[in-house]
Amino acid sequence: MSSIRIKAKERKGSVDVKTLMKHKMETGLRKGKDGKKIPEHWITDVTAESGGKVVFAAAFNTSISKDPYLAFKFEGKKGDTVKISWKDSKGKTDSAETKVK
Amino acid sequence: MNRRSILKAAGAIMAAAATAVAFPRMVFAGYNAKAFKNPKMDDSLNELFGSSTTAPSGDIKLKAPDIAENGAVVPIEISTSLKADRIAFMVKENPNPLAIVADIPAGTQSTVKTRVRMGKTTQVMAVVSADGKLYTASKEVKVTIGGCGG
User: Fold this and answer.
1) Which end of chain B is less enclosed by CB atoms within 10 A, N or C?
2) Chain A residues with CB inside 8 Å of B49's CB?
3) Planar angle of CA A19, A20, A25, nearest 5 degrees
4) CATH code of the domain in which A53 resides
5) Are A75 and B98 in contact (CB < 8 Å)?
6) pLDDT of residue A34 exceeding 60
7) Closest C-alpha among B62, B113, B65 to residue A17
C-alpha cells in the first residue's frame, strides 16, 4: 500500500489538495532506548503533478512533523489527476495518484 | 551531416534556449542542504533567494496557534494575496530554523498548509518571494512541550 493519502476536491475552478504521507521523520535529535541518538531520516522533497505539469513542489526539513501533512490549491477541474511523490534522505521514493472530485 | 540537418539542429537548440528564457521559474529548487542545515536564518535566505533583505507585509496571512501544547505537531498555514513564486517558513529558535520551502508555479494559489515541530516558545516567520522581493509575516507561538526530541 502506498504511504500517501490524497484528497483532491474542486470548488469554483480551484482544486483543494490535502495529503498525508506516512513517514517517521526522524530528526536525528531523538534518543533511542539504548541512549544513542537515532540517525536522521526524513522526507526532503515532495512534488505534485497534474496532467504532466508540476503544480506544487516543496522541500522539507527535519522540523516537519511526523507523518507530514501538506495542503495547497491549484487551478484545475473535476476528473483531473493529481500525482504526489516524495523522496527521503535515504533516496527512497513513493508516489500515489488520485482523481479530483 | 549536411547543411539541412545542421540548420535543423541549430534551430532546435535555439528553440530550447528560448523556452528556458521564457519559463525561468519552471526550475524547482528541491532540497538544498546549505539552506536547510543552517542555524542562521539570514544565511538560509541568501541561499534560497539570493538575498536576506526582507520587509514585513500586511498582505501575508500567517495562521499559527497562540499556544501550542504539543511542540511536535504545530499546524501552520500561510496564504497571501501577493503573487508569490516561493514561500518559506521558519521557526526562529529551532536548531535549523528553515522548515519548509514551497515552489508556487503559475496557476497555483499562494497558499500552503502543513504541520511543524517547535523546540520552544519562539517567533515563527513566513517569507514570501514575489516580484523579486522578499516579504515576511511573523508571530510568536508559545510552546508548552517542545517537539524536537532530545
Assistant:
1) N
2) none
3) 135
4) 2.60.40.10
5) no
6) yes
7) B113
* CA B138 – CA A26 distance, rounded (Å): 27
Residue B29: per-residue pLDDT: 67
Least CB-CB distance to A58: which of B101, B107, B118?
B101
Which residues of chain A are within 8 Å of residue B36 when distances are taken between CB atoms? 59, 61
| % residues pLDDT > 90 (chain A) | 64
| Whether the Cβ atoms of residue B67 and residue B76 lie closer than 8 Å to each other | no
ipTM, two decimals, is 0.87
Nearest to A29 among B32, B111, B148 (CB): B148
* CB within 8 Å: A59 and B32: yes
Query: Could you give phi then psi for residue B48, rounded to 5 degrees?
Result: -80, -40
Delineate the domains of chain B, giving CATH numbers in brackets. Answer: 29-145 (2.60.40.2470)
Rounded to whole angstroms, how far apart are CA atoms B31 and B117? 18
Least confident segment among A75-79, B3-7, B77-81 = B3-7
Of A86, A15, A44, the closest CA to residue B108 belongs to A15
What is the domain range of residue A58?
A: 4-99
Average pLDDT estimate for A24-30:
86
> How many CB atoms lie under 10 A from the CB of residue B47?
18
Of B96, B101, B114, the CB nearest to A69: B114
Distance from CA of B115 to the nearest CA of A (A): 6
Residue B23 pLDDT exceeds 60: no
